[in-house]
Specification:
alpha+beta; 8 strands; single chain; 210 residues; Nucleotide Exchange Factor Grpe, Chain A, domain 2; three-stranded antiparallel beta sheet
């Protein structure tokens, strides 16, 4: 009985030792090979690895964001330049169109102006009474309608009489002494000058005070 009791105690001691090792979750080394760590230790190791890689990921995101910001700035600059070029192109096309239109109108008006000159000269010597006066009134109405048409196309007569002579606007055919005008002023308009828009369509033929 004594031997059996001793054997039983010895076996019980071995079981207690094994249970103690299991409860403490120690790493058991068998012939130099480590047993796999516990589940909790594995989680702690993974969390440590993640904490080490997070700063690297943040730096990569910052770098990618910076590059995207630079590219967006380049795209915005390119779009603004293209938009400005397109606006300038539209303005240039519109300006060229208006210029061609003015040139076409000017070409036609220059052919009509001699007729206007003839009507003006006829009206200066119009009869004041009789049948001729009625006829002159009809011519005057035609002249006014013609002037209205020219004004609608942007054609305006110059008011040269009494103005200082300007070679850009006037064409002098003579200089004569004058008691009524100072030297250099226009004393007589022989042929009316006209503007087409802002440019001179035809200069005025004038006499200038000497």
């Amino acid at each position: 009985m004594t031997k059996e009791n001793n054997k039983h105690k010895k076996n019980q001691h071995v079981e207690d030792e094994i249970n103690n090792h299991i409860d403490e979750e120690e790493i058991i080394e068998v012939e130099g090979v480590e047993v796999e760590p516990s589940f909790e230790e594995s989680i702690e190791t993974e969390e440590q690895i993640e904490e080490e890689t997070i700063p690297e990921d943040i730096e990569k995101l910052k770098s990618a964001l910076h590059e995207a910001h630079l590219k967006s700035g380049e795209y915005l600059d390119g779009w603004q330049r293209a938009r400005a070029e397109f606006i300038n192109y539209k303005k240039r096309v519109e300006r060229d169109r208006q210029q061609r239109q003015q040139e076409a109108v000017g070409s036609i008006v220059l052919k009509i102006l001699p007729v206007v000159d003839d009507i003006e000269r006829a009206l200066k010597s119009r009869p004041q009474d009789g049948n001729g006066a009625e006829w002159a009134e009809g011519i005057d109405l035609i002249y006014k309608k013609l002037q209205s048409i020219l004004e609608a196309e942007g054609v305006k007569p110059m008011n040269a009489l009494g103005e200082v002579f300007d070679p850009n606007l006037h064409e002098a055919i003579a200089q004569v002494p004058s008691d009524d005008y100072e030297s250099g002023r226009i004393i007589e308009v022989l042929q009316q000058g006209y503007y087409l828009g802002d440019r001179v369509l035809r200069p005025a033929l004038v006499r200038v005070a000497a």
